[in-house]
Write a structure and sequence with these properties.
Elements lengths: L8 E5 L4 H12 L3 E6 L2 H12 L5 E5 L5 H15 L4 E4 L14 H28 L4 E5 L12 H21 L5 E6 L8 H12 L3 H9 L10 H11 L11 E3 L11
Helix pairs in contact: 1-2, 1-8, 3-4, 4-5, 6-7
Length: 263
């Protein structure tokens, strides 16, 4: 299927590693020109090299999305580099976890500021440019905690619930302008953070790391842990003309791991 993304300008926040990098590379494979942003300069340099190796125009920029100016700078980098913006993928996140007893106000606000508010700020900055695009697209990366009340996932649940509500509201205000807005919910995924999580689980259970990984895999009906590359195809599809009637939707890519039935 031709996704019609060749030459499109794409911004992926948090695109220097993990799910974000997999998404950025998938867009590059489709011939899109990509800007990624993050805070780790070494990871950004490596990501830029990988993207350029795909034969597209690419740039990696260091910004702090905890600030309003950082969000503006990320969007402007894409506009300056590629002459406009067609697709915004909000992916940057934080790694805070806990519950109401273990987290103080600062811990709770880290997720809400570094992810939820950052997504909204990036959308605000991107909107004038998306309006100029022949096909504006916004895809937000949420997380399965929005549907699964895990004991230590309060920050993720709060942040991703707010993102989902924002996505629905925002989509209704821009739909008539040809802009679609959707949110995709991955579960915990086998990114560069996974080895540390696997080691911690092995220590907790008193088992080998191989056994710890197998215990994680049992949580997924598909029989394996979801990979970043499993998330990317849905993102590129939602950015394509084939998804022009899909907006305001909340889509899980979780290997069947989320309990419950959602309409």
């Amino acid at each position: 299927m031709d996704l019609g993304l060749k030459g499109k300008s794409v911004l992926v926040t948090g695109g220097n590693r993990g799910i974000g990098l997999a998404i950025a590379l998938a867009f590059a494979d489709e011939g899109a020109n990509v800007v990624v942003c993050g805070r780790d300069k070494a990871a950004l340099a490596e990501a830029e090299a990988k993207l350029k190796a795909k034969g597209v125009k690419a740039k990696a920029v260091a910004v702090d999305l905890f600030t309003a100016q950082g969000c503006i700078d990320a969007v402007q980098a894409a506009v300056n580099t590629h002459g406009g913006l067609d697709v915004l993928v909000n992916n940057a996140s934080t790694a805070v976890s806990g519950n109401i007893e273990t987290l103080d106000d600062e811990g709770l606000m880290e997720r809400l500021t570094g992810k939820t508010l950052a997504y909204m700020r990036c959308c605000r900055a991107a909107l004038p440019h998306l309006r100029k695009s022949a096909r504006g697209r916004v895809i937000c990366i949420g997380g399965s905690a929005v549907r699964h009340a895990a004991a230590t996932a309060l920050p993720s649940a709060l942040g991703n619930s707010a993102i989902t509500a924002f996505t629905k509201q925002f989509s209704s205000t821009v739909a008539a302008q040809g802009i679609t807005v959707n949110v995709v919910h991955p579960p915990f995924t086998k990114t560069d953070r996974f080895p540390a999580r696997r080691a911690a689980r092995a220590k907790q259970l008193g088992v080998s790391e191989a056994e710890a990984e197998a215990s994680f895999a049992k949580q997924f009906p598909i029989g394996r842990i979801v990979e970043p590359s499993d998330i990317a195809p849905m993102i590129t599809f939602l950015a394509s003309p084939h998804a022009s009637a899909i907006t305001g939707q909340s889509i899980a890519i979780d290997g069947g791991s989320t309990p419950g039935i959602f309409y």
